[in-house]
Automatic annotation (TrEMBL):
Protein name: Ascorbate-specific PTS system EIIA component
Function field: The phosphoenolpyruvate-dependent sugar phosphotransferase system (sugar PTS), a major carbohydrate active transport system, catalyzes the phosphorylation of incoming sugar substrates concomitantly with their translocation across the cell membrane. The enzyme II UlaABC PTS system is involved in ascorbate transport.
Coiled coil: none
Organism: Dorea ammoniilytica
Compartments, record wording: Cytoplasm
InterPro entries: Ascorbate-PTS_EIIA_comp (IPR051351), PTrfase/Anion_transptr (IPR016152), PTS_EIIA_type-2_dom (IPR002178)
Pfam families registered for this protein in UniProt: PTS_EIIA_2 (PF00359)
Keyword Transferase: yes
Keyword Cytoplasm annotated: yes
Domain PTS EIIA type-2: 5-147
Keywords assigned: Cytoplasm, Kinase, Phosphoprotein, Phosphotransferase system, Sugar transport, Transferase, Transport
Amino acid sequence: MMIQELIKKENIVLKRHAKDWKEAVHISLEKLVEGGYCTDQYEQGVLKNTAEYGPYYVLTEEFALVHCNDFASVNETQMAVTTLDEAIKFSEDGYDVRILVALVAVDGDKHLDGIRAISNIFADEDKVQEIIDATEPEKVLQMFIESAEEE
């Protein structure tokens, strides 16, 4: 799938507030559930896996890739981006997180352009800061499109 099919402007939500990590997970998946890309069972899968394995999806300072392997509750592969107005921690000694990218996938390989974009963005501190500071979803969408095209 091309990145333009994987992430849509309406699934980018900026400067939301979350009181804790569970609410952050909920907020990150909200647009994907509303859009019918997955069911609310997917969120339950993420929470269950977090209880069992810890916050495996917090990958770096500022960034969590919210996902689980519950293909059955996914209707269509899609990503959503949420930024938080204040950083939260998913564990006591974990990173501060302000950017959540939710990924729901019907299989293990249709989302590779999205993974490429994520890798290129989160390897660059300036791009991470641009997303944190963004006030327009279009800006974030454009960053993902450009980053998917980078080698």
